[in-house]
């Protein structure tokens, strides 16, 4: 991409092409736009961050005048007409390799070329055309645990040439595919929206009661159940469910069901699960710190 343009100019260009954009922190990727306030000065949930994404030039210029180095967040879903697959490179030893998982799926099933970003962490964003008759959220369906994230309605991606705090940038993978969005193959939709074979939510709640301790059973399996529940929680309950999950992990460490090292791994995984659910980074940190403080 052309280096002598400002990030504001890039944001405006994306907006002219129909993408709803908003500023994000170069340090955490979290949205910089706060929630609206009610008459008492309290935050109104669900009004900040990605919900503020716009194509309005005046608003975009105002934001980037305030945060000139802000990364460009793009709202996924029907507003911008795209959704994304986000195969991540492993961040820690033992983490799933999303790029390898995606390469295996492509080799097995095939996938058309589409607009793709290269991320600073070694991953990719593969963008597909939004289909209103096949809507997707951030749910990973049958690819959960493979290192492949999904960004649909309620989610967002960072667009090139946004630069992180460490100087590493997001890039366009292939200029010839720029703003050429393929329709996702049917096999991918099937994997992301599988026929419901899971336990119904009510059964899950009986085996892992909200707000209470669960005694007995495989602790690792219970941690995985907690992570699944946090990742699947919708807007309005995400902080509450994350705090509940963190406290269950704290209980397991205090009761010596798992060692502290396993508790630390679970907290790291809770961060990822909360991100998948669409919770902002600062809210995740604050909620987990609050749970640790009660240990």
Can you walk through the features of this model?
This protein is an alpha+beta fold and 295 residues long. The protein contains 9 helices and 8 strands. The model is unreliable at 197-216 (pLDDT under 50). Helix 6 packs antiparallel against helix 7 and helix 7 (238-254) packs antiparallel against helix 8 (260-276). The protein has helices at residues 7-16, 57-66, 98-109, 186-192, 201-207, 219-232, 238-254, 260-276, 281-293; strands spanning 21-24, 71-75, 82-87, 116-118, 124-129, 148-151, 156-159, 171-172. Strand 4 (116-118) and strand 5 (124-129) form a beta hairpin. The protein folds into 2 domains: 7-192, no CATH class; 201-293, no CATH class. The chain starts with 6 loop residues before the first helix and ends with a helix.
What are the salient characteristics of this protein?
295 residues, alpha+beta, 2 domains, five-stranded antiparallel sheet, three-stranded antiparallel sheet, 12% strand
Short description:
The chain has 295 residues and is α+β, with helices and mostly antiparallel strands.
Strand order of the largest sheet: 6-3-5-4-8
Element pattern in H and E: HEHEEHEEEEEHHHHHH
The coarse overall form would be globular
Distance between the termini: 49 Å
Overall structural domain count: 2
Number of helices: 9
Number of strands: 8
Q: How do the helices and strands line up, and which of them pair or pack?
A:
Blueprint: H1 7-16, E1 21-24, H2 57-66, E2 71-75, E3 82-87, H3 98-109, E4 116-118, E5 124-129, E6 148-151, E7 156-159, E8 171-172, H4 186-192, H5 201-207, H6 219-232, H7 238-254, H8 260-276, H9 281-293
Helix pairs in contact: 1-2, 6-7, 6-8, 7-8, 7-9, 8-9
């Amino acid at each position: 991409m052309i280096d002598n343009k400002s990030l504001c100019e890039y944001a405006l260009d994306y907006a002219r092409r129909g993408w709803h954009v908003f500023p994000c922190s170069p340090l955490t990727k979290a949205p910089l736009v706060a929630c609206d306030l009610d008459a008492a000065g309290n935050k109104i949930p669900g009004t900040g961050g990605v919900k503020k994404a716009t194509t309005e030039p005046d608003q975009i210029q105002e934001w980037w005048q305030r945060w000139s180095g802000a990364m460009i967040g793009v709202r996924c879903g029907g507003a911008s007409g795209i959704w994304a697959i986000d195969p991540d490179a492993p961040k820690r030893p033992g983490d799933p390799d999303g790029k390898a998982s995606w390469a295996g799926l492509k080799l097995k099933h095939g996938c058309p070329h589409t607009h793709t970003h290269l991320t600073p962490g070694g991953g990719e964003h593969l963008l597909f055309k939004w289909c209103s008759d096949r809507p997707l959220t951030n749910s990973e369906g049958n690819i959960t645990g493979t290192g492949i994230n999904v960004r649909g309605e309620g989610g967002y991606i960072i667009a090139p040439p946004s630069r992180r705090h460490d100087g590493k940038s997001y890039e366009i993978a292939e200029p010839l595919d720029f703003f050429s969005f393929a329709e996702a193959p049917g096999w991918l939709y099937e994997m992301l929206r599988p026929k419901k074979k899971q336990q119904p939510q009510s059964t899950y709640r009986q085996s892992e009661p909200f707000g209470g301790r669960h005694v007995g059973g495989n602790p690792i399996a219970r941690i995985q159940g907690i992570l699944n529940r946090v990742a699947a929680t919708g807007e309005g309950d995400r902080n509450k469910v994350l705090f509940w999950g963190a406290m269950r992990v704290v209980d397991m460490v205090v009761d010596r069901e798992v060692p502290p090292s396993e508790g630390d791994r679970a907290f790291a995984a809770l961060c990822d699960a909360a991100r998948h659910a669409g919770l902002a980074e600062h809210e995740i940190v604050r909620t987990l710190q609050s749970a640790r403080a009660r240990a």
